[in-house]
Amino acid sequence: MSEEMEQWVAEMLRINDLDAKMTDKQIKIIKAAVETFSEKGYAASSTSEIAQKAGVAEGTIFRHYKTKKDLLLSIVAPMMTKLIAPFVLKDFNKVLHSAYPKYEDFLRAVIKNRMEFARNNLPIIKIMLHELPFQSELQAQFKEHIAKKVFNRLQEVVEHFQSDGQIIAIPSHVAVRVSVSVLIGFCFARFFLLPELDWDEEQEIEYSIDFIMHGLAPRE
Amino acid sequence: MSEEMEQWVAEMLRINDLDAKMTDKQIKIIKAAVETFSEKGYAASSTSEIAQKAGVAEGTIFRHYKTKKDLLLSIVAPMMTKLIAPFVLKDFNKVLHSAYPKYEDFLRAVIKNRMEFARNNLPIIKIMLHELPFQSELQAQFKEHIAKKVFNRLQEVVEHFQSDGQIIAIPSHVAVRVSVSVLIGFCFARFFLLPELDWDEEQEIEYSIDFIMHGLAPRE
Amino acid sequence: MSEEMEQWVAEMLRINDLDAKMTDKQIKIIKAAVETFSEKGYAASSTSEIAQKAGVAEGTIFRHYKTKKDLLLSIVAPMMTKLIAPFVLKDFNKVLHSAYPKYEDFLRAVIKNRMEFARNNLPIIKIMLHELPFQSELQAQFKEHIAKKVFNRLQEVVEHFQSDGQIIAIPSHVAVRVSVSVLIGFCFARFFLLPELDWDEEQEIEYSIDFIMHGLAPRE
Amino acid sequence: MSEEMEQWVAEMLRINDLDAKMTDKQIKIIKAAVETFSEKGYAASSTSEIAQKAGVAEGTIFRHYKTKKDLLLSIVAPMMTKLIAPFVLKDFNKVLHSAYPKYEDFLRAVIKNRMEFARNNLPIIKIMLHELPFQSELQAQFKEHIAKKVFNRLQEVVEHFQSDGQIIAIPSHVAVRVSVSVLIGFCFARFFLLPELDWDEEQEIEYSIDFIMHGLAPRE
DNA sequence: AATGAATGAGGATTCATTCAT
DNA sequence: CATGAATGAATCCTCATTCAT
Fold it and tell me: SUPFAM superfamilies under this entry (chains A, B, C, D) (predicted)?
């Protein structure tokens, strides 16, 4: 397993640790499952291959996870929570207003923080993206948390910056959509489309934020 | 099968018709395969289910497509070509310059045209998006056509509009990236994320283009 | 197809010609079947492969041969008849006594004649040897003709030469067995075990016959 | 299963036991496979039939033998080794010279010993004979062991007896060939051609050896 | 807790054979 | 006569899951 993978797994374990203490074997199983699912997709991965890669018996997997799908969910579900964690902080708004006087400060903070997180969890994010359309449990969780909480939070943020005149008075969902599109578009290009390129992340982020700020600036 | 699906299939058949005349059974097989693959994903779809849905014997599938993967590729590969067809027109640049005096005209034409195409081919596009990361044949075709041809074309377009002062003099790849992010972000929200919403497409497109144009406008 | 194969097929066609006039396609089918059966065995050969190799449609085979087994039998059955043809000549005994005053003359004539025949029909003989244990129809024919007719003929021959003192007075079936073993043993080595060796057939045959004659010579 | 079959299987298990301990199910699988392969041939035997005959699930076969061919090889390959075991003994020559002062003693010992072995392993030997021409792995092993080791050993033996004047000075390979032909010819008739006959084996062997000894005796 | 042998349903694919053209 | 599309049973093999040890 590559060192990169090691890091991802470490990060992911920190997540699951929050839920429960895992045995040594359990850790190996999760490592192997993440590696396998992200390489071949969930449906094309076999539990026997995962067991083999984890160095445990086939039965051991099912002692810890009732079904193969259970294993998937135990990997992906906590990731979804973590992924949007900053947006559901208790004192999100309070922190926000004091910490980020300008919309671009907010964008800069968010993109840097979430990119760092994504970088440490790429394989699981890849798994999540692929299985979301097929796993109704994940979809439910996704809609519940992202669509509702995160999107609402972002709308609040945008509306806050519209109210003090930093952002043009278009429907807030539009401002959210275009902001998010640009930043996620960058992440997607950076991590999935052309990961092998030698990106100047700082520069690209600045261009992106500058673009968003001008695109959303109040018209004269 | 829903009427929507009927339309997609009709569009897709028009594509394959260009290549070869298909028998009645072949059409049924493709219909069933598209439906099944897009609902469950390629790996989780079984040839027996496809055969049943198509109303043919399982063996019939393999008379027309040597393997299950062949069936997938025969559906997805031509779609990729069609998807980027406008960008590889012979006289793309000539048409472009005379037809679209402004960058926003170009963006508007492209997004409307491609959205119409996508709308008629959603299931296949969904299949394509899902299988791209796992099917190396598709990846190869994708990199060859999209990454090279389309991206280069878009860079040329952007550079053209930069040279006449419509677009700010940032690296052209950045301008391409943010433009594409915004438009694809909209398509993604429209078709996949919240398809059930009652979108005012015209309005959303105008907001998006306005955002892009201001984001890329030369700074005063 | 090798030239050797060409010859075999030619010989085999002469055989089948006795039974019925064959169309051009029929000939091609038989050629392809012989080649395939002898290379992979009957059970492991598919009719579609034979059809392809013969350059005919799959259905064409079944127009001429009701089943795959029919095709096999139509190839092998006539071969069995031909293989032992000399022994069931009408005037076998008459010819024998006048033509071969000594047992070794008889052996020499038989081995040379049958080796020539075998050389021209190796693939079909190989097929026959392999399928005999599994095809009861062939077994029945084999027992009927070989075991009864040929073996009886050979016993008569041996007894004839015993009666005039050329061969030791052991049970005739033993003399037949050892004679046949030595000659077939040679054919087997020559054609199947080590066909690539540069055999001096004349010499080997003489050694073999000399061995048989001394082994069967009356003891002093 | 007949008592005869029971014995064969017992003998065969003794062989495999040397390699590894087998589970109860594994033994049943091997029994069923030997029975089926020898009755219908390898290609015409289905794993489902073998599983049924063995009283196990079809999947169980593939837990122990990766493929159907693996199952075949695990049956046949060790048999080949056993079949020629006496000829590759470490102190073959030493034993030979002291134990068998005459060529006929050697022949008698070998034929009796190998017939006993063959009698206990007929079905596997039948399988081996049938599959040798189609399984390149077996052919390789056969050529390596039989052709090289056994044949060379027999040549050495014959040359030893030629040097002390017991056998005529013909090329040793000829003496080997005719000797082996007569003995194998007998085995073949005894076990495969006419197994139902009431053979007086002792007598037939004596006739055969007497025939060989006279056939190879130095000419006066 | 961990094992791994056992399961049998289901996987993709091939088969011999039929029949409308 | 010849075709080749169509069949569906049968092929070998893999799968997720269970359970006695």
Answer: Homeodomain-like, Tetracyclin repressor-like, C-terminal domain
